[in-house]
Amino acid sequence: xxxxxxxxxxxxxxxxxxxxxxxxxxxxxxxxxxxxxxxxxxxxxxxxxxxxxxxxxxxxxxxxxxxxxxxxxxxxxxxxxxxxxxxxxxxxxxxxxxxxxxxxxxxxxxxxxxxxxxxxxxxxxxxxxxxxxxxxxxxxxxxxxxxxxxxxxxxxxxxxxxxxxxxxxxxxxxxxxxxxxxxxxxxxxxxxxxxxxxxxxxxxxxxxxxxxxxxxxxxxxxxxxxxxxxxxxxxxxxxxxxxxxxxxxxxxxxxxxxxxxxxxxxxxxxxxxxxxxxxxxxxxxxxxxxxxxxxxxxxxxxxxxxxxxxxxxxxxxxxxxxxxxxxxxxxxxxxxxxxxxxxxxxxxxxxxxxxxxxxxxxxxxxxxxxxxxxxxxxxxxxxxxxxxxxxxxxxxxxxxxxxxxxxxxxxxxxxxxxxxxxxxxxxxxxxxxxxxxxxxxxxxxxxxxxxxxxxxxxxxxxxxxxxxxxxxxxxxxxxxxxxxxxxxxxxxx
Length: 493
Fold this sequence. Notes:
The protein is mainly α. The protein has 22 helices and no strands. It is found in: Cell membrane.
């Protein structure tokens, strides 16, 4: 129970850090989408799309290596491991920056946007600064110092907001002004991250580690391959829409086609905490260690469902209202994209990644992403030929995501030698989903008759939903106290 409580607290800090990062990103997006016209905003989003697409290729899967190797070595050896991975990340950052600078015009032509080339050139220094910051969460979660991650996220995202948005709002800057500000903020993140990476082991003398560069690449290269296919998967719908439907449709799609941020925060935060835990247990490889792993996995899955599903249902029912509230009336079309994409969050609850990474499932992980990417590209191309609709592209993307998720769960069930259906708490899922939909739709229909603005509609609906679902959680014995009690006890102490 003590370890589970500690994991809950560590996860809370990671979620808090991710939430602060998301909040600042959303604020900047809300402001920029209102200040820029759709064409300029689409260009800005395309720059970020190019960066996120190439990032996975150039990071070589290295950020995940911290959480895998550090639990397996002493703190004296940890300095050497951190050094090795940092050196590679710095070299890859330089290579990625060079690729963006010299390949900017080629990328602009590929995405059919003549204004994109110069913006990418201004942006090209960012990878040099940001790649060495990656993996910080893996280090701090290994040594139970994720509270530092929360502080880092808040401080650095404040700088991003200031340097990106203020030049645009106060100095009437353009897209390139925002990108220059982003570059300056990235340099600040670089300095702070390098300091924090060594903070947990700063009091220990450096000792040569048994972990070699070869060991690092042996672990990370399959992950890099899977990540390359993963980025193809995540960017394929963006590519098809950007190329075949233009900047304005891409702007609608970019705002609406996103998973619920709170869900991503919870999933990524639990994954960050679980990888070091699973890595340590997998190294022991005993019956008892496997029991600890499956019990931990099930506990996390149950808590995740309880936290995520009520939020997902709310966002699904109010998708159009949320988009207009965030981005303005001109982005009402984004609501339908958002509603379709939200369906993914009903299936993204299982943090299978850390378990596969810890028990040697990298090859299977790679194969699922490779075949999944090839199938997705074919089906999305086919949807353009048959339907010629950006919405059809997104529907195909959601269906393929669900298929990949069940392939991963199949591996987990085989590893623990249990049936796939026994992995999922179907009774709990039904206890949450059906009542949530039954509660929400009457609330929305009833309040819309009062002609409320979007803020009031979301606020009042949210409060009523929280009260009614809270009562239901007591009646149905959903036991939310088990999630929050460790945090309450920590605050009391």
